[in-house]
Specification:
The chain is α+β, with helices and mostly antiparallel strands. The protein has one domain. Helices cover 29% and strands 30% of the residues. It contains three helices and five strands; from the N terminus they run E-E-E-E-E-H-H-H. The termini are far apart.
Length: 136
């Protein structure tokens, strides 16, 4: 039986420059990813959501990590398999920094399996407030 550690990362990324975000925006030059680490087999995979939908990512480099939160240890392999299936195959609307972005995708998939990340929730709230304050 494997033991899995779930870790949310907010890392530095220039990809959001394509969106023309101002430097004050909460997701300016930031990208969220989820790392699922199998502690027994010593394997790990990073998962994210970008402009073209789901993507399997390289592991975040230490120099690019802005925030990190390990938030759950699970021995339930079926729950992790369901999480992985949700990340990779669930219907995903088009990327929209305002309505559905990397943080939203990870949160929805995590919540479907009963996981919660304070870090991702924080960035979701900051992003929503940004647009509410500007009347969007």
């Amino acid at each position: 039986m494997s033991i899995y550690l779930l870790t949310a990362y907010i890392r530095h990324s220039y990809a959001t420059d394509r969106l023309g975000l101002p430097p004050q925006h909460p997701l300016y030059r930031k990208h969220a990813c989820l790392v699922i680490r199998d502690l027994k087999n010593k394997t790990a995979a990073a998962h994210g959501f970008g402009f073209n939908g789901y993507l399997r990512e390289p592991m975040p480099k230490r120099s690019k990590i802005l925030y990190k939160q390990s938030f759950s240890v699970s021995k339930n392999e079926q729950r992790i398999a369901n999480l992985y299936n949700g990340l990779t195959s669930r219907y995903t609307p088009n990327y929209c920094i305002k309505r559905y972005n990397c943080v939203d995708h990870l949160l929805i998939c995590l919540h479907e399996q009963g996981f919660h990340s304070h870090l991702l929730n924080y960035f979701k709230r900051k992003n929503r407030r940004w647009y509410q304050q500007r009347g969007h």
